[in-house]
Amino acid sequence: MNAPLPDVPEVRVVGLPQLTAGFDLVERLDLAMHLEVHGPLEPMAGERLAALADDVLLRGRGGAGFPFARKLRAVARAAIGRGIRPVVVVNGSEDEPACRKDTVLINRAPHLVLDGALLAAEALGARTLVIGVTRDSTEAAMTTALAERGLTNRRNAALRARVQRNPHRMVTGEASALVRSAEGGPALPPGRKARASDAGVGGAPTLLSNAETFAQLAVAARMGPARYRHTGLRDEPGTVLLTLSGSVARPMVVEAPAGVPLRYVLRLAGAPPLPQGVLTGGYHGRWLGATAAHAAIVSRAALESLGGALGAGAVLPIGPETCPLGEALRVANWLAAESSGQCGPCRLGLPAAAAGLADLLTGGGPTALEALREVLSAVRGRGACKHPDGTASFVESTLAAFADDVAAHVLRGGCGRRTRGVLPLPTAGAPAPGTTSGERLAVDWTLCEGHGLCADVVPELIRLGPDGFPAVADASVPLQLRGRAQRAVRRCPALALRLERTASAGRPALPGPLGRKALDSGRS
Q1: Mind telling me which residue stretches traverse the membrane in this protein (predicted)?
Q2: Which CATH topology does 439-519 take?
Q3: Which residues sit opposite 206 in a β-bridge?
Q4: Are 454 and 409 in contact (CB under 8 A)?
Q5: Which residues are within 8 A (CB) of 65 and not within 5 positions of it... i.e. 6 or more apart?
Q6: What is the largest distance, in Å, between two alpha-carbon atoms of the chain?
Q7: pLDDT tens-place string over residues 385-412
Q8: Distance between CA 407 and CA 168 in Å, rounded?
Q9: Helix, strand, coil % (nearest 5) of the chain?
Q10: Are 228 and 238 in contact (CB under 8 A)?
């Protein structure tokens, strides 16, 4: 339990393989074996390639699902309008702990990914290709593949191709972060809204998509639209790569036609016959309840109609033996720690959301639930990148999908099940951001004079109310904020602020509602 997924888990296929063709023959398709399995690939003119992407309804497979043809045409228009060569970027970061499909493709079929990227580069007249990765295995696999094709980053090369290694963090895979790192900057979102198709790497129009999208493009170019559309659904043709983990006997990557029943794919991985819920789309995705999961098919539209999400293709069932809210708290803590810390919703909102969920689990009652909903509402739509929205969506979906468990924790103080850690996360080396110090801040209102110094020192736990007096979080102080909480106590000129021990030392918790109502609730 809580074991990180291997870079290259077991791969299974439902029906005939397309992206995973040849995997039954060798562990890695080098260039010679790749051509033996898939055959040669002829270049295409720009509009013809866009028409192909239109015909097969190709959408990005990294999570957002943006139509690839529209992105291709937008880059071409911007490049022609400005008289500048565009850039092609392959996003192979895949830093979410529950996703491995792109990592599998890059490790085992790197030339299929390169086929699609080179098709796009040729069609656009690009002279720069960047492959962004964050793992040792993907860096080595793609570096070897470029060498096998004779592609280099030398100045005199017709196409300069290079592998861009970035830190292994959730926000690294965000498009603007990858563009920024390819320019030599930090692999963090820049905090401004900009479309890569207009101005990406070096200010040039940039076609950026994930590894599976380029691999799908290469498969469609070889098969042709008519044959490609024979697999899958009318409105979502082709196959889908899914990563299955959570409460399964064997974590795996599955290639399946769009439209296959989700319960069949779950059975392949040895999931419980009746999971209490299935997380779809990964840790920025949404939960399906047991009934919806049983009825669902693998399709972007079908999953969304049931309240789920295809997202980056991660599928995580959980069995009846674990507390779903406890599992969600572990993920929320990790997501808060993965913040780039560049905007308020990330730096303050995500720890507060993890904190609110922790308070809900540890006896916070209706007040904690109300405060958590307020935090999520404040986070949504205000971040510098998609990380705050994705995290808020995950927590909101948890509350909706497991309403009975929420009621049990709110009204009875718990659901009676312990958290088993079935959702994969990196091995923790330090306390999670929601772990409490076992202390809480308290104000002696007979002494407080409203100086407000405490709110400047630790705004995550103390804010000034409309009357200028502090509103203090009614929850345990997280370990990572304990030092600043002590500093706030020392700086209070009226000696009105103090740290008090709570009965929940060592349990995960974070701020509940910031207001006098919480202080008057009768809870210690």
Answers
A1: none
A2: Alpha-Beta Plaits (3.30.70)
A3: 87
A4: no
A5: 59, 300, 310
A6: 82
A7: 888 999 999 999 999 999 999 999 999 8
A8: 37
A9: 40, 15, 45
A10: yes
CA separation, residue 286 to residues 314, 363, 427 (Å): 11, 25, 23
Residue, of 336 and 346, whose pLDDT is higher: 336
- Count of positions (residues) in the chain: 524
pLDDT digits (tens, 9 = 90+) for 69-118: 999 999 999 999 999 999 999 999 988 899 999 999 999 999 999 999 99
C-alpha 186, offset from chain centre: 19
Q: Which residue has the tokens 């996360």?
A: 425
Residues facing 140 on adjacent strands: none
Gap between the Cα atoms of 253 and 487, Å rounded: 49
40 burial type by CB count under 10 A (0-12 exposed, 13-18 middle, 19+ buried): exposed
d(Cα 495, Cα 62) in Å, to the nearest integer? 53
The yes-or-no verdict on residue 382 having pLDDT over 90 is: no
* pLDDT tens-digit map of 209-245: 999 999 999 999 999 999 999 999 999 999 999 999 9
Are 478 and 508 contacting, i.e. CB atoms less than 8 angstroms apart?
no
List the chain domain ranges: 17-227, 231-318, 439-519
Could you tell me if 187 and 172 are in contact, meaning their C-beta atoms sit under 8 angstroms apart?
yes
What's the whole-number mean pLDDT along residues 350-357? 91
The residue to which tokens 């000034």 are assigned:
464
Cβ(294)–Cβ(263) below 8 Å: yes
Q: Return the structure tokens found at 472.
A: 């203090």
Contacts of 515 (CB under 8 A, 6+ apart): 465, 471
> In terms of pLDDT, which residue wins out, 432 or 389?
389
Q: Measured between alpha carbons, how far is 91 from 174 in angstroms, rounded to an integer?
A: 9
CB 50 within 8 A of CB 124: no
| Helices (H), ranges, 262-364 | 262-268, 290-295, 300-305, 324-337, 344, 350-361
Does 231-318 carry CATH code 3.30.70.580? no
DSSP class of residue 339? Answer: -
Cα 135 vs. chain centroid, distance in angstroms? 16
Q: Is 119 helix (H, G, I), strand (E, B) or coil?
A: helix
Q: Per-residue DSSP letters for 334-395?
A: HHHHT----SHIIIIIHHHHHHHHHHHHTT-HHHHHHHHHHHHHHHTT-SSSSHHHHHHHHH
Return the bridge partners of 209, or none.
Answer: 90
Tell me the C-alpha distance between 524 and 474, whole Å. Answer: 8
Neighbouring CB atoms inside 10 A of 290's CB total: 16
Q: Where does residue 41 rank: exposed (0-12), middle (13-18), buried (19+ CB within 10 A)?
A: middle
Superfamily of domain 17-227: NADH-ubiquinone oxidoreductase 51kDa subunit (3.40.50.11540)
Closest CA to 69 of 59, 81, 79: 59
Spatial distance between the Cα atoms of 112 and 77, rounded to a whole number of angstroms = 27
